[in-house]
Amino acid sequence: MANALLSLSSLSAAAHICRNNASASRTASRTGSRGVRASLRAAEVFEPGPIVSTSGVVPTHRVTVHDRQRGVTHEFVVPEDQYILHTGESQNITLPFSCRHGCCTSCAVRIKSGQIRQPEALGISAELKEKGYALLCVGFACSDVEVETQDEDEVYWLQFGRYFARGPIERDDIALELALGDE
């Protein structure tokens, strides 16, 4: 029975896609996606490995997030078929976010190692994805992953800066005050 639970044929669609990705498989074998201990909080340690869901057995991976803005590092376990942000939040981990739909850059990270599948990430261009950027709110871990949060304005500038000839837009508090006063 245990062998039947661990068969590839019982993986969910998202996990199966991740497993079929040759790059993800190579990364997973290099980083050892099984048997790695990860802590959710200082007092709790969990073991990544397959979990049973309604769609079958789903592999899990260790995700390490270096939050530059807060100066902390989070480690937690994420099933391949669940968004990284949602899983972190369900484990009481505070990560940056805004829209939760992959349309902004609030939860943008730079991938240091591993692979994230993000078919719904509309907030970053294909070019930035190729450079190793990902969005946690719509990202699925395909292997053990280490990421670093990015400044939202920096990512926005990388994506759209070439369209603003005069450089980054500076905040105009007076105009903002006038606009809010009209409402």
Give an overview of the whole structure.
The structure is a single chain. This protein is α+β, with helices and mostly antiparallel strands. The protein is built from seven helices and eleven strands. The strands form four sheets. The protein has a five-stranded mixed beta sheet. It has a two-stranded antiparallel ribbon with strand order 1-2. A two-stranded antiparallel sheet has the order 3-4. Residues 1-47 have low confidence and may be disordered.
Q: How would you summarize the topology of this molecule?
A:
Layout: H1 2-5, H2 13-20, H3 22-31, E1 38-41, E2 44-46, E3 51-53, E4 56-58, E5 60-67, E6 72-79, H4 84-90, E7 108-113, E8 116-117, H5 126-130, E9 133-135, E10 140-141, E11 145-149, H6 152-160, H7 173-181
Parallel strand pairs: 5-11
Antiparallel strand pairs: 1-2, 3-4, 5-6, 7-9, 7-11, 8-10
What would the keywords be for this entry?
alpha+beta; elongated; two-stranded antiparallel sheet; 183 residues; 5-stranded mixed β-sheet
Summarize the structure.
The protein is α+β, with helices and mostly antiparallel strands and 183 residues long. The chain has seven helices and eleven strands. The strands form four sheets. Strands 6-5-11-7-9 form a five-stranded mixed beta sheet.
Q: Quickly give the structural class.
A: alpha+beta
What's the tally of helices? Answer: 7
Radius of gyration: 19 Å
Major sheet description: 5 strands, mixed
Lateral arrangement of strands in the main beta sheet: 6-5-11-7-9
**Number of distinct beta strands:** 11
